[in-house]
Amino acid sequence: MAEKEEIFTKVIIEVVGTPKEHVENSLKMVLDNIKKEPAISPEKMKVFRPKPIDNYFSAFAELDLRFDSTGALIGFCFDYMPSSVEIVRPEQLGIGSVEMGGLLNDLLSKLHNVNMAVTQLKTENDNLKNNAEGLLKNIIMLSIREKPKNIDEIARDLGIRSADLKPFVDKYVEEGRIEEREGLYKLKSSLY
């Protein structure tokens, strides 16, 4: 078994989101959780106030942390996903093959979980897109079923901007389901 070695690091933890108060509270909660970690000894924590970036707020903290092992450091990285880690000392890390195998398996497990979450989100997103397009088709059909209308009239019926609607209507014209004459659109056949 590898001898325990202390690892001294400088770490940056960042939280991005909105509203500003949520970002502040989230960063405080993360720092409080780090203080409770048995294998981590915080030596210094400097917290910076949230700053606006585009439509979000970003807050970060610079931490000087001491870890009781390489495994604790890598576990910290998995759990807290810091923006940056600088190992101050030691210059060389001694890690045994059993510990390294365990760390790699932990990494693979996290990557598999992330992959499953991304796959699930993609499936949900695809379903939402399909359902949204189905609703859009229904509303377009209802809008032009009785009489031909121009794109602005259809857009008013749908409650969306003409520019956002036009690509969908053009697609249905190209498919031969909607007929367009002099800027007026008329339902030729069901959009299904």
Please, could you describe this protein's structure?
- The protein folds into 2 domains: 86 residues, Alpha-Beta Plaits, CATH 3.30.70; 53 residues, Winged helix-like DNA-binding domain superfamily/Winged helix DNA-binding domain (Arc Repressor Mutant, subunit A), CATH 1.10.10.10.
- The protein is 51% helix and 27% strand.
- A 4-stranded antiparallel β-sheet has the order 2-3-1-4. Strands 5-6 form a two-stranded antiparallel ribbon.
- Helix 2 packs parallel to helix 3 and helix 4 crosses helix 5.
- It starts with 6 loop residues before the first strand and ends in a 5-residue tail after the last strand.
- The model has no long low-confidence stretch (mean pLDDT 89).
Entry summary:
This protein has 192 residues and is of the alpha+beta class. It has helices spanning 20-36, 70-80, 97-144, 151-158, 162-174, and strands spanning 7-17, 40-53, 56-67, 84-89, 178-181, 184-187.
- Note the main sheet: 4 strands, antiparallel
Question: What is the CA-CA span between the terminal residues?
Answer: 67 Å
Secondary structure: number of strands:
6
Topology pattern, helix = H, strand = E? EHEEHEHHHEE
Oligomer: single chain
Mean pLDDT: 89
Spatial extent as radius of gyration: 28 Å
Strand order of the largest sheet: 2-3-1-4
Class from helix and strand fractions: alpha+beta
Number of helices: 5
Give me the CATH fold name of the largest domain.
Alpha-Beta Plaits
- Helix content estimate: 40-55%
CATH architecture of the largest domain: 2-Layer Sandwich
Strand content: 25-35%
- What general form does the structure show? elongated
Low-confidence stretches: none
